[in-house]
Each structure stands twice: as C-alpha cells, then as structure tokens.
Specification:
The complex is a heterodimer. The model of chain A has no long low-confidence stretch (mean pLDDT 94). Chain A has no helices and 11 strands. Chain A is globular. In chain A, a hairpin with a 3-residue loop joins β4 and β5. Chain B is an all-beta fold. Helices cover 0% and strands 60% of the residues of chain B. Classes of the chains: A mainly beta, B mainly beta. Chains A and B meet through β4, β5, β9 and β10 of A and β4, β5, β9 and β10 of B.
Chain lengths: 116, 112
C-alpha cells in the first residue's frame, strides 16, 4: 500500500481565497483524522471520522473550516475564506479496526499551507 | 478531557547513551498508546504501538512501556546514535471518544 496520500504537498494562497486539502487513507482503514501542526500549538486534532461519518469536530477552529468524507477512500478539508493565521502544516492520518482491536495510526506527509 | 504531557521538552545527549523519554496522560480510559518520530519538515513515522492490555513493546533499540493505571508511558532508547535526533511524540487513543490525542513532543539531539 502507498500509505496515506495527501495533496497538495505545498499550497500558497492569498488571504480570502478558498483552500481545499485532500487525503486518501490507507485502503481498509475505517478511521480518519485531520490534524493541524504549528510551532506554538503542536498537533491539534481538527476532526475525526469513523466509517465515513464525522464523530467529533470539536477541534475545528471556526465555521470557515469544513471537512467531508464522501467515501472510504477520500476526504477533504476546506478553508473558506482563508486567513494568514491558518498557515500551518495539515496532516491526515488513518487507522483500522474498532475498540480494543484498533491498529496503529499512519500519517500522510502533510500539506504545508501558507496564506499571505 | 484527555491531556497528554511529555517531559522533557528537549534533551541533548552524547552518542552511545541510553535515554528515557516520558509521557503521561490524565485519563486511563484508552485503547492504546503510540510513539511516533518526526524529523524536521517531515511527517510522523510510527515507532511502537502498545495496546491497553499490554505492558511493553520492543523494536530494535527501542522499548516502550505502559502503566495505564498511573497514566504513564516511557520510551527507552538504547545506545543512542546521531541518527536518532528527531522529535518524539506520544499519542493516546481514547476509549471514550476514539480520538488520538498527542503530547507536545520531546526534541532529542544526539551529539557525535
């Protein structure tokens, strides 16, 4: 398996523009996580999906952020409108199983977002 | 609310030393605990996964232990090498929420 695939790897956009980040989890994994990493705040969990359903989005900072998982092999994180303070590295991760049988989580390489 | 703390925040050791990184968590209701490594500008690489029913896991020079009742885990690195220099992160999978919650990490520098 190619692992968790994120695109784009780098994104530079102007303030006010819409940004869409994409993630393809590992085939067969049923949990998907979106994280944001900054020097000041470390890794913050934004939203968690299980079996394509959003379970917890309490980490989504504002209404400007939205995430979808239309099927088991694809998820998007959208920021509209983007602001300079959204600049960070955004990671997607996936894992398999449920309850005590949950496997380790694997991370994508991340998308480095810069909003100018 | 689950909180994960890692101590120390940074550590510098000479090559060859054995060292211990610490991770503590406030809620013992977890499915598992995972240790990751992150190199500068890179993604996270999984090192070890310990299920809640396990006490330790080993991979090469790495040994991770888990004491769920006290909310603690340690990552032991034997005979450290300059290539071990990176940030090490621990994360717990909450059995109440399913979330994977991270600590702030320990940045390790191993000097040749």
């Amino acid at each position: 398996d190619a692992g968790v695939i994120q695109s784009p790897r780098h994104e530079v956009t102007e303030m006010g523009q819409e940004v869409t980040l994409r993630c393809k989890p590992i085939s067969g994994h049923n949990s998907l996580f979106w994280y944001r990493q900054t020097m000041m705040r470390g890794l913050e969990l934004l939203i968690y999906f299980n079996n394509n359903v959003p379970i917890d989005d309490s980490g989504m900072p504002e209404d400007r952020f939205s995430a979808k998982m239309p099927n088991a092999s694809f998820s998007t994180l959208k920021i509209q409108p983007s602001e300079p303070r959204d600049s960070a590295v955004y990671f997607c991760a996936s894992s398999r199983g449920a309850g005590q049988g949950m496997t380790e989580a694997f991370f994508g390489q991340g998308t480095r977002l810069t909003v100018v | 609310k689950q909180e994960v703390t890692q101590i120390p925040a940074a550590l510098s050791v000479p090559e060859g030393e054995n060292l211990v990184l610490n991770c503590s968590f406030t809620d013992s209701a977890i499915y598992n605990l995972q240790w990751f490594r992150q190199d500068p500008g890179k993604g996270l690489t999984s090192l070890l996964l310990i299920q809640s029913s396990q006490r330790e896991q080993t991979s090469g020079r790495l040994n991770a232990s888990l004491d769920k009742s006290s909310g603690r885990s340690t990552l032991y690195i034997a005979a450290s090498q300059p290539g071990d220099s990176a940030t090490y992160l621990c994360a717990v999978r909450s059995s109440n929420t399913g979330k994977l919650i991270f600590g702030q990490g320990t940045t390790l520098q191993v000097k040749p």
